[in-house]
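pipeline stage [seq->struct] | target=Class I SAM-dependent methyltransferase | organism=Gordonia westfalica | residues=376
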Amino acid sequence: MTITPDSTEPPGRSSTSTTAASTAPSADEFAERFLSSTLATAETMSVYLGERLGWYQCLADHGPLTADELATRTTTDPRYAREWLEMQAAFGILDADLSGTPTTFAISPGVAEVLTDSSSRSYLGALPRMFAASFGRLPELLDAYRTGGGVSWEQLGADARECQAALNKPWFDTELAPALAGVDHLHRRLSQPGAKIADIGFGAGHSTIALARAYPEAAFTGLDVDAASVQMARDNAEAAGLGERVQFHLAGGEEAAAHGPFDAAFAFECLHDMPRPVEVLAATRQALAPGAPMIVMDEAVSDEFSGPADELDKLMYGFSLFVCLPDSMSSPPSVATGTVLRPAILRAYAEQAGFRDVEVLPIEDFAFFRFYELNP
């Protein structure tokens, strides 16, 4: 699924206070909207239960099923299973057949693809894990909001780590190679025999693995500060048969020079999380061979804050409040970027790091992301 910024200006982008007041919701209107948001929260977290307990996958593989049958196949409690199944049918996620006794429940192909097919670009089944990870740390988050502290990626744990990896993987697997192949000068550089490529902040390593598959004559070095992610990436590389050409290190981007020089460097959806992005960009620039570029993939948010926003900006503010900003602020001193990394902010970071210019690459409709080329 791709969310793209609305082509029209959101309400209030250039509005005066008088216009803003005239469009403000009444108490009844806002109460209705907030109730809808509450229902959406309940729906989201019910998907977390179904995804983590294997209930959606079981229905996709073996349905239609009764509550008892689902519970037996998944070794879960039948009373909880029945309540969850009825709730899913009430929300229109699952289909309920009331013609027999007991009721059976089924998952449609489209819903199954979104919630269980981790190879599909429409896959979102792991998405609730990110919010579940954050909600499990609400006391720490409240304290961070009061004191200016943070909650680290390590504290958020496996749910957050696995969510980001799972949602990005189908895009890296199917779309990264053709996207880069469409940028001629970059494709030529990556295709050079013996090219040495860096992946800064690689997470589970799916971006690095996708690059290695696309450019078999290149060698790849990944740097990441999260130990659990490094191990996950190493396991993924071995499973892909790429352990010889892909090396993952527990190290920050500030240490890039120790592993270079590189013919190109990438940073996929991680710059906005970094407490000191300028230092990382500067170190990466110093680790690049003469004329080599750095490619940053980050959120394709709107150019500037303008009040009411499109769906993409709203989603990214949600991630920022609960995940990315607290993670960044957990390692002081931090510039505290947040998920909503606007182009002007990235350009300022690049300029401070010594890059000569920043260009937006002609890669469109790549999930939530925009690609920037930073040239030294």
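stage status: PASS
auto-comment: Confidence is low (pLDDT under 50) at residues 1-21. The CA atoms of residues 177 and 211 lie 7 Å apart.
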